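Hi, here's the filled form for the chain we discussed.

Project: internal
Contact: R.S.
Residues: 342
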Amino acid sequence: MNTNRQIFSRGFSLITTIYTLMLAVYLILRIVVGDRWWWLAFFNNFAPYYFVPLLIFLPLALIARSRFNIARLLPFAVIFLLWYGPYWLPKSTVVASESESLKIVTFNVLPMNPRIDDVVDWIRQTDADIVLLQELAPESKTQLRAELADLYPYSDDLPDNQLTLSRYEVLTNERIELNLWWVQHSTLNINGQEIAIYNVHLPLPTLTEPRFNVPLDNGLAQLALAYDETWRNAQIRALLERLQAEPLPYIVSGDFNTSDNAVIYSEIAAAMHDSFREAGIGLGASWPADTGEEGLPDFVPALIRIDYVWHSDEIKALSATVGPRLGSDHLPLIVSLGIKAS
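And the returned structure, exactly as it came back:
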Protein backbone atom coordinates (compact mmCIF):
# COMPACT_ATOMS: atom_id res chain seq x y z
CA MET A 1 0.00 0.00 0.00
CA ASN A 2 2.77 2.41 0.91
CA THR A 3 4.59 1.50 -2.31
CA ASN A 4 1.47 2.31 -4.39
CA ARG A 5 1.05 5.59 -2.54
CA GLN A 6 4.68 6.48 -3.17
CA ILE A 7 4.33 5.68 -6.88
CA PHE A 8 1.19 7.84 -7.09
CA SER A 9 2.84 10.66 -5.15
CA ARG A 10 5.92 10.68 -7.36
CA GLY A 11 3.85 10.42 -10.53
CA PHE A 12 1.53 13.21 -9.41
CA SER A 13 4.47 15.42 -8.47
CA LEU A 14 6.06 14.80 -11.88
CA ILE A 15 2.83 15.70 -13.70
CA THR A 16 2.30 18.87 -11.69
CA THR A 17 5.95 19.83 -12.21
CA ILE A 18 5.60 19.52 -15.98
CA TYR A 19 2.25 21.33 -15.97
CA THR A 20 3.31 24.26 -13.79
CA LEU A 21 6.56 24.63 -15.72
CA MET A 22 4.71 24.74 -19.06
CA LEU A 23 2.13 27.20 -17.72
CA ALA A 24 4.85 29.43 -16.28
CA VAL A 25 6.74 29.42 -19.58
CA TYR A 26 3.55 30.32 -21.46
CA LEU A 27 2.72 33.21 -19.12
CA ILE A 28 6.26 34.59 -19.30
CA LEU A 29 6.28 34.36 -23.11
CA ARG A 30 2.88 36.05 -23.28
CA ILE A 31 4.22 38.97 -21.21
CA VAL A 32 7.58 39.24 -22.95
CA VAL A 33 6.76 38.25 -26.55
CA GLY A 34 3.04 39.03 -26.72
CA ASP A 35 1.80 38.23 -30.23
CA ARG A 36 5.07 38.65 -32.17
CA TRP A 37 5.41 34.90 -32.73
CA TRP A 38 2.55 33.54 -34.85
CA TRP A 39 2.19 30.27 -32.94
CA LEU A 40 2.15 32.09 -29.59
CA ALA A 41 -0.45 34.52 -30.93
CA PHE A 42 -2.61 31.50 -31.83
CA PHE A 43 -2.22 29.93 -28.39
CA ASN A 44 -3.06 33.24 -26.70
CA ASN A 45 -6.64 32.90 -27.94
CA PHE A 46 -7.23 29.94 -25.63
CA ALA A 47 -5.51 31.29 -22.50
CA PRO A 48 -8.27 30.52 -19.94
CA TYR A 49 -8.28 26.82 -20.82
CA TYR A 50 -4.66 26.38 -19.79
CA PHE A 51 -5.81 26.77 -16.19
CA VAL A 52 -8.45 24.00 -16.40
CA PRO A 53 -6.09 21.25 -15.07
CA LEU A 54 -5.99 23.19 -11.80
CA LEU A 55 -9.56 22.01 -11.19
CA ILE A 56 -8.17 18.47 -10.91
CA PHE A 57 -4.63 18.95 -9.65
CA LEU A 58 -5.29 21.40 -6.82
CA PRO A 59 -8.08 19.34 -5.12
CA LEU A 60 -5.91 16.21 -5.42
CA ALA A 61 -3.00 18.05 -3.84
CA LEU A 62 -5.25 19.26 -1.00
CA ILE A 63 -6.67 15.77 -0.42
CA ALA A 64 -3.16 14.28 -0.40
CA ARG A 65 -1.98 17.13 1.84
CA SER A 66 0.97 17.58 -0.45
CA ARG A 67 2.31 20.95 0.64
CA PHE A 68 4.91 20.95 -2.09
CA ASN A 69 2.36 20.52 -4.88
CA ILE A 70 -0.09 22.93 -3.24
CA ALA A 71 2.64 25.56 -3.09
CA ARG A 72 3.34 25.14 -6.81
CA LEU A 73 -0.27 25.09 -7.94
CA LEU A 74 -1.75 27.78 -5.71
CA PRO A 75 -0.02 30.79 -7.34
CA PHE A 76 -1.50 29.81 -10.71
CA ALA A 77 -4.94 29.47 -9.16
CA VAL A 78 -4.54 33.00 -7.79
CA ILE A 79 -3.49 34.27 -11.23
CA PHE A 80 -6.56 32.67 -12.77
CA LEU A 81 -8.90 34.18 -10.16
CA LEU A 82 -7.40 37.64 -10.56
CA TRP A 83 -7.45 37.42 -14.37
CA TYR A 84 -10.78 35.71 -15.05
CA GLY A 85 -12.63 35.75 -11.73
CA PRO A 86 -14.14 39.23 -12.34
CA TYR A 87 -15.88 37.86 -15.45
CA TRP A 88 -18.35 36.05 -13.18
CA LEU A 89 -18.99 38.91 -10.76
CA PRO A 90 -22.31 40.82 -10.85
CA LYS A 91 -22.04 43.99 -12.91
CA SER A 92 -23.39 47.45 -12.11
CA THR A 93 -25.96 48.52 -14.71
CA VAL A 94 -27.25 51.76 -13.19
CA VAL A 95 -27.84 54.53 -15.74
CA ALA A 96 -29.47 57.94 -15.61
CA SER A 97 -33.25 57.85 -15.74
CA GLU A 98 -33.30 60.05 -18.84
CA SER A 99 -31.19 57.57 -20.82
CA GLU A 100 -32.56 56.05 -24.01
CA SER A 101 -32.71 52.23 -23.94
CA LEU A 102 -31.55 50.40 -27.05
CA LYS A 103 -31.36 46.67 -27.74
CA ILE A 104 -28.76 45.44 -30.24
CA VAL A 105 -28.38 42.03 -31.89
CA THR A 106 -25.22 41.11 -33.77
CA PHE A 107 -24.84 37.79 -35.58
CA ASN A 108 -22.50 36.28 -38.17
CA VAL A 109 -25.14 34.23 -39.99
CA LEU A 110 -22.80 32.21 -42.30
CA PRO A 111 -23.47 32.15 -46.08
CA MET A 112 -24.48 28.48 -46.22
CA ASN A 113 -26.70 28.63 -43.13
CA PRO A 114 -29.61 26.17 -43.64
CA ARG A 115 -31.74 27.71 -40.87
CA ILE A 116 -32.54 31.20 -42.14
CA ASP A 117 -36.23 30.70 -41.27
CA ASP A 118 -35.19 30.02 -37.68
CA VAL A 119 -32.97 33.10 -37.73
CA VAL A 120 -35.95 35.22 -38.83
CA ASP A 121 -38.15 33.79 -36.05
CA TRP A 122 -35.46 34.27 -33.42
CA ILE A 123 -34.80 37.89 -34.38
CA ARG A 124 -38.52 38.57 -34.01
CA GLN A 125 -38.47 37.07 -30.51
CA THR A 126 -35.53 39.24 -29.38
CA ASP A 127 -37.53 42.46 -29.90
CA ALA A 128 -34.24 44.17 -30.80
CA ASP A 129 -34.14 47.77 -32.00
CA ILE A 130 -31.13 47.32 -34.28
CA VAL A 131 -29.94 44.09 -35.90
CA LEU A 132 -26.43 43.86 -37.35
CA LEU A 133 -25.76 40.79 -39.48
CA GLN A 134 -22.60 39.58 -41.20
CA GLU A 135 -21.68 36.93 -43.79
CA LEU A 136 -25.03 36.72 -45.53
CA ALA A 137 -25.66 34.97 -48.82
CA PRO A 138 -27.48 37.32 -51.25
CA GLU A 139 -30.69 35.29 -51.09
CA SER A 140 -30.57 35.24 -47.27
CA LYS A 141 -30.06 39.00 -47.18
CA THR A 142 -33.10 39.49 -49.42
CA GLN A 143 -35.21 37.13 -47.32
CA LEU A 144 -34.27 38.69 -43.99
CA ARG A 145 -34.90 42.23 -45.22
CA ALA A 146 -38.29 41.26 -46.70
CA GLU A 147 -39.60 39.09 -43.86
CA LEU A 148 -38.56 41.52 -41.14
CA ALA A 149 -39.63 44.71 -42.90
CA ASP A 150 -42.68 45.10 -40.64
CA LEU A 151 -40.39 45.32 -37.58
CA TYR A 152 -37.46 47.06 -39.25
CA PRO A 153 -38.64 49.53 -41.90
CA TYR A 154 -35.11 50.92 -42.23
CA SER A 155 -32.13 49.02 -43.59
CA ASP A 156 -28.93 49.68 -45.48
CA ASP A 157 -28.74 49.46 -49.26
CA LEU A 158 -25.06 48.58 -49.48
CA PRO A 159 -23.82 45.89 -51.91
CA ASP A 160 -22.02 43.51 -49.58
CA ASN A 161 -22.76 40.50 -47.41
CA GLN A 162 -23.69 42.49 -44.31
CA LEU A 163 -27.07 43.88 -43.32
CA THR A 164 -28.16 46.57 -40.87
CA LEU A 165 -31.84 46.49 -39.85
CA SER A 166 -33.29 49.29 -37.74
CA ARG A 167 -36.53 50.45 -36.15
CA TYR A 168 -35.08 53.94 -36.21
CA GLU A 169 -34.60 56.14 -39.23
CA VAL A 170 -31.35 55.54 -41.09
CA LEU A 171 -30.02 58.96 -42.05
CA THR A 172 -26.93 57.86 -43.94
CA ASN A 173 -25.10 54.66 -44.72
CA GLU A 174 -21.84 54.05 -46.51
CA ARG A 175 -18.99 51.63 -46.93
CA ILE A 176 -15.72 52.80 -45.38
CA GLU A 177 -12.37 51.48 -46.56
CA LEU A 178 -9.97 50.53 -43.79
CA ASN A 179 -6.60 49.46 -45.14
CA LEU A 180 -8.00 47.44 -48.08
CA TRP A 181 -10.99 46.23 -46.05
CA TRP A 182 -14.54 47.54 -45.78
CA VAL A 183 -16.96 48.14 -42.91
CA GLN A 184 -20.49 49.51 -42.95
CA HIS A 185 -21.10 52.89 -41.35
CA SER A 186 -24.60 54.26 -40.71
CA THR A 187 -26.03 57.18 -38.80
CA LEU A 188 -29.40 56.70 -37.12
CA ASN A 189 -31.92 59.12 -35.72
CA ILE A 190 -32.82 57.68 -32.33
CA ASN A 191 -35.60 59.86 -30.98
CA GLY A 192 -33.90 63.03 -32.15
CA GLN A 193 -30.36 61.95 -31.28
CA GLU A 194 -27.85 60.96 -33.95
CA ILE A 195 -25.88 57.78 -33.29
CA ALA A 196 -23.16 56.27 -35.49
CA ILE A 197 -23.40 52.52 -36.10
CA TYR A 198 -20.53 50.43 -37.46
CA ASN A 199 -21.36 46.94 -38.76
CA VAL A 200 -18.00 45.16 -38.78
CA HIS A 201 -16.70 41.90 -40.15
CA LEU A 202 -12.92 41.80 -39.94
CA PRO A 203 -10.77 39.33 -41.92
CA LEU A 204 -9.84 35.91 -40.65
CA PRO A 205 -6.31 36.04 -39.14
CA THR A 206 -4.73 33.57 -41.54
CA LEU A 207 -2.42 33.32 -44.48
CA THR A 208 -3.80 32.00 -47.76
CA GLU A 209 -1.98 28.69 -47.21
CA PRO A 210 -0.79 26.79 -44.11
CA ARG A 211 2.89 27.24 -43.25
CA PHE A 212 3.43 23.48 -43.29
CA ASN A 213 1.85 20.75 -45.37
CA VAL A 214 0.51 18.47 -42.67
CA PRO A 215 -1.91 15.70 -43.73
CA LEU A 216 -4.62 16.64 -41.22
CA ASP A 217 -8.25 16.89 -42.31
CA ASN A 218 -9.10 19.22 -39.46
CA GLY A 219 -10.27 22.81 -39.87
CA LEU A 220 -8.90 24.03 -36.55
CA ALA A 221 -5.50 22.45 -37.21
CA GLN A 222 -5.30 24.05 -40.65
CA LEU A 223 -6.32 27.38 -39.13
CA ALA A 224 -3.52 27.07 -36.57
CA LEU A 225 -0.90 26.30 -39.22
CA ALA A 226 -1.94 29.30 -41.32
CA TYR A 227 -2.51 31.66 -38.37
CA ASP A 228 -1.28 35.22 -38.87
CA GLU A 229 -2.71 38.33 -37.18
CA THR A 230 -0.85 40.94 -39.24
CA TRP A 231 -3.58 42.01 -41.65
CA ARG A 232 -6.43 41.73 -39.19
CA ASN A 233 -4.55 43.82 -36.63
CA ALA A 234 -3.95 46.43 -39.32
CA GLN A 235 -7.74 46.62 -39.88
CA ILE A 236 -8.33 46.99 -36.15
CA ARG A 237 -5.86 49.85 -35.84
CA ALA A 238 -7.32 51.55 -38.91
CA LEU A 239 -10.79 51.26 -37.36
CA LEU A 240 -9.57 52.70 -34.06
CA GLU A 241 -7.97 55.61 -35.91
CA ARG A 242 -11.28 56.25 -37.69
CA LEU A 243 -13.18 56.18 -34.39
CA GLN A 244 -10.88 58.80 -32.87
CA ALA A 245 -12.37 61.25 -35.37
CA GLU A 246 -16.00 60.07 -34.99
CA PRO A 247 -18.00 63.12 -33.81
CA LEU A 248 -21.11 61.16 -32.78
CA PRO A 249 -21.75 58.68 -29.97
CA TYR A 250 -21.08 55.32 -31.61
CA ILE A 251 -21.74 51.59 -31.48
CA VAL A 252 -19.30 49.22 -33.18
CA SER A 253 -20.67 45.74 -33.55
CA GLY A 254 -19.95 42.50 -35.36
CA ASP A 255 -17.47 39.72 -35.97
CA PHE A 256 -13.97 40.94 -35.16
CA ASN A 257 -12.32 37.53 -35.69
CA THR A 258 -10.40 38.56 -32.58
CA SER A 259 -10.40 36.73 -29.26
CA ASP A 260 -10.67 38.76 -26.09
CA ASN A 261 -7.52 36.91 -25.04
CA ALA A 262 -5.56 38.20 -28.03
CA VAL A 263 -2.93 40.78 -27.14
CA ILE A 264 -4.50 43.42 -29.40
CA TYR A 265 -7.76 43.22 -27.44
CA SER A 266 -6.23 45.56 -24.87
CA GLU A 267 -5.73 48.20 -27.58
CA ILE A 268 -9.41 48.01 -28.54
CA ALA A 269 -10.57 48.06 -24.92
CA ALA A 270 -8.45 51.16 -24.27
CA ALA A 271 -10.30 53.02 -27.04
CA MET A 272 -13.92 51.95 -26.42
CA HIS A 273 -16.08 49.87 -24.09
CA ASP A 274 -16.77 46.14 -24.42
CA SER A 275 -20.48 45.64 -23.68
CA PHE A 276 -20.10 42.01 -22.63
CA ARG A 277 -17.29 42.74 -20.18
CA GLU A 278 -19.33 45.66 -18.88
CA ALA A 279 -22.62 43.82 -18.37
CA GLY A 280 -22.22 40.13 -19.25
CA ILE A 281 -21.40 37.13 -17.08
CA GLY A 282 -18.80 34.49 -17.92
CA LEU A 283 -16.52 34.08 -20.92
CA GLY A 284 -19.22 34.87 -23.49
CA ALA A 285 -17.72 32.48 -26.05
CA SER A 286 -19.35 32.73 -29.48
CA TRP A 287 -17.21 30.49 -31.74
CA PRO A 288 -17.09 27.76 -32.99
CA ALA A 289 -20.71 26.63 -32.72
CA ASP A 290 -22.99 24.15 -34.44
CA THR A 291 -20.63 23.11 -37.20
CA GLY A 292 -18.35 20.21 -37.95
CA GLU A 293 -16.07 22.25 -40.19
CA GLU A 294 -13.62 23.09 -37.41
CA GLY A 295 -13.04 19.42 -36.65
CA LEU A 296 -14.75 19.64 -33.24
CA PRO A 297 -17.54 17.30 -32.09
CA ASP A 298 -21.02 18.84 -31.94
CA PHE A 299 -21.16 18.53 -28.14
CA VAL A 300 -18.14 20.82 -27.66
CA PRO A 301 -19.35 24.30 -26.64
CA ALA A 302 -18.15 27.53 -28.20
CA LEU A 303 -14.60 28.16 -27.00
CA ILE A 304 -13.65 31.78 -27.67
CA ARG A 305 -15.37 35.16 -27.97
CA ILE A 306 -14.90 36.91 -31.30
CA ASP A 307 -18.26 38.73 -31.64
CA TYR A 308 -18.69 42.07 -29.90
CA VAL A 309 -20.79 45.15 -29.29
CA TRP A 310 -18.43 48.02 -28.47
CA HIS A 311 -19.54 51.55 -27.63
CA SER A 312 -18.32 55.06 -26.88
CA ASP A 313 -18.27 56.86 -23.53
CA GLU A 314 -21.78 58.34 -23.90
CA ILE A 315 -23.29 54.83 -23.85
CA LYS A 316 -23.45 52.21 -21.10
CA ALA A 317 -24.18 48.49 -21.38
CA LEU A 318 -27.15 47.29 -19.30
CA SER A 319 -27.09 43.60 -20.18
CA ALA A 320 -25.28 41.25 -22.55
CA THR A 321 -26.02 37.60 -23.30
CA VAL A 322 -25.01 35.04 -25.90
CA GLY A 323 -27.85 33.67 -28.02
CA PRO A 324 -28.68 30.12 -29.17
CA ARG A 325 -27.27 27.97 -31.96
CA LEU A 326 -28.89 28.99 -35.24
CA GLY A 327 -27.08 27.10 -37.97
CA SER A 328 -23.94 29.25 -38.00
CA ASP A 329 -20.46 28.59 -36.66
CA HIS A 330 -21.07 31.73 -34.55
CA LEU A 331 -23.49 32.38 -31.72
CA PRO A 332 -25.43 35.66 -31.77
CA LEU A 333 -24.98 38.35 -29.14
CA ILE A 334 -27.82 40.35 -27.57
CA VAL A 335 -26.95 43.59 -25.79
CA SER A 336 -29.09 46.26 -24.13
CA LEU A 337 -27.58 49.74 -24.00
CA GLY A 338 -28.42 52.98 -22.24
CA ILE A 339 -27.68 56.12 -24.25
CA LYS A 340 -27.30 59.38 -22.37
CA ALA A 341 -29.72 62.06 -23.48
CA SER A 342 -28.00 64.77 -25.49
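Let me know if anything looks off before we file it.
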